[in-house]
Amino acid sequence: MLLFLSFLAMSMIGSSHSAESKVHNIARLNNEVRELRTQFVDGRTELMQIKMESSVVLKMAKKAIHQPEEPPKKIIVKNK
Amino acid sequence: MFVFAVLVLIQLVHIQVVEGDKYRKKAEKRVFKTFDIPANRGNLYDSKGNLLATSVPKYDVRFDAVTVKDRLFKKHVDSLSLSLASEFGKPASYYTKMLRKARSHKNRYLLIQRNMGYSQYMRVRNFPLFRLGANRGGLIVEQRTIREHPIGKIAERTVGYERKDEQGYYTRVGLEGAYGPFLRGKEGKRKKQKIAKNQWKPIGDANEVEPQDGFDVISTIDVNIQDITHHALLAQLESYDAEHGTVVVMETRTGEIKAISNLGRTASGKYYEKLNYAVGEAHEPGSTFKLMTMVAILEDNVVDSSTVVDTENGRVKFYDRTVRDSKWGGYGKISMAEAFKLSSNTAFAKIVDQHYKNNPKKFVNRLIDMGISKPLGLSIRGEGKPKIPYPGDKNWYGTTLPWMAHGYGVAITPLQTLAFYNAIANDGELVKPRFIKEVKAWDRVHEKFDKEVLNTAICSKKTARIAQEMMKEVVRSGTATNIKTNAFAIAGKTGTCWGNYGKDQEREYIASFAGYFPADDPKYSCIVVIHKPNKKKGYYGSVVAAPVFKAIAKKIYNDIPVVDEIFAADITYSKVTQNFENYFEKAQTYKTVMPDVKGMSAMDVIALLENMGLTVQIKGSGVVEKQSIAPGVKIQAKQTIRLELS
Predict the structure, then answer these.
(1) Cross-chain CB nearest to A80 (options B151, B227, B567)
(2) Architecture of domain B572-645 in CATH?
């Protein structure tokens, strides 16, 4: 009887410990998610700025590449 | 001794039994707590999946100058200052002084830097001393979640924000505000128990509520068009030194707003997204209102495009006020179509006064029927209310009607004007301008928003077609010939409105252009309104506003490829086929042994040999005559072959 009760007590302590360690783990992972998320948004922001037409125009002007005066022509060849 | 023991015992019992409940409650309060679990706010995307707004954490870094050991502080204070200096751009001596002062003052909460992004925070965290952590290094980090706009200052006002004050009321600006109810999500509730390391462990509770994350909202904005629009408007505002301006680009058929740019000047002369003028600012439209007048009088059949009106000498008096044409001396006798393309104020004032003087209600009712007296009911808050005076109002005078005819004494927002022009481009169908496409939860579509028609026909198709022709003529041979291009046709109307036309005030102008392109198959409608340009530099709608329209139209047009379909000619050159088969066979057969390449063309032979790992040197042109490695020889690594062609 005593053995059983102490077994129960032990498993209770054990499970509450594992629950606590899970909470800590979740907190850690949450932080990691947040960090990765900012990293993603930082990257996305930078990409957005770089890929905007206005910034591409500025960069290309140095290389003497300008915007076209006419739209591109697309020729689709069809087989009969 | 015994008495003491008894007293202690009594006190024990007293605390346990009499005051027990109170203390137990207190203990519970310290250890158990119900938390509001904030829901993650959804993202706001543009129509092509680019992020417009999202939530990110930002970091404040502070320094606890007391917890650090003397030895460590002395060792690292200089190198830490150097690192901080190189990161934040202030001199190292500044940081050394600051850190030492904090230490001598026992400051445990010295602010190093606020609002750092993730990557900067990661660098700062690895600085000398800081990398030792909270207890030994004194690093204190606070994290907050803020809303970030990856496209920066462009469309800042349209993307907007949402704030909640202590009373729970929301300030709702732009798309973030308009779609707040979708984005917000629902807060959850959960009881938690305090455990080690200052963490809280969730525990079972009947009142538990799971938080629901906000939905993602896909807006109709196109970042690329927005970018073009922003910079076209900015350049023009700067070169004409204007007070503020707005541009809206809308897809003609669907009413999807592709770009909306609002720039106002600050005290320092820079421009930024100050207010949403396009949505909120109802102003006197001036000549762009002539389209509404024209459509109204065409619908009432009081004129047709060839009706002749005498503009006299460009000055016509109504009671005590004079309507003037911008051209000194007037245009003489002209048709209504010409009056429209030349934007003759006198012609419009006269014709409307002549036909509606005795029944002004008929004219105003026609305008009201076309829907321009009502707000559009936009999802973005703060839409300006149009103002159309009605006969019998206390400020309705004899001059009200002729002035209304050319766009004065009425007020309308740029977006409402645009919606009307768009309706004409759509043969009379008035479509509601729309900012939202879809609401999504991850990949699942929660709600889809379709085209919304406010009025299937604000006028007859016939009238719309006549008005379309007149607008084309404005660019072809009227007030806006300066934006004519051969690539595609533009249809629209210029507007140069006098603001401040009171007697003693300095005159100010509002330059505008509204229209659509390509004129023959309208894809986009667009309005440009620029307030208070520097008069010395120019103030006509055609000069100040129309070029912005053209720049945008041209860029958008140039982005769409001209597609040409042709059928493949059914010719096969036997020699080409043969050469290719010869090449293909050799390429399949020879991998390590030198083939006989005599008679092959340079194009084929280079591909063949370089694929085998050889470096090819060529002399002459034509077909191969000599090869420096004989056929059948095994090829070594990094070998060079010389070929002679003729």
Answers:
(1) B567
(2) 2-Layer Sandwich (3.30)
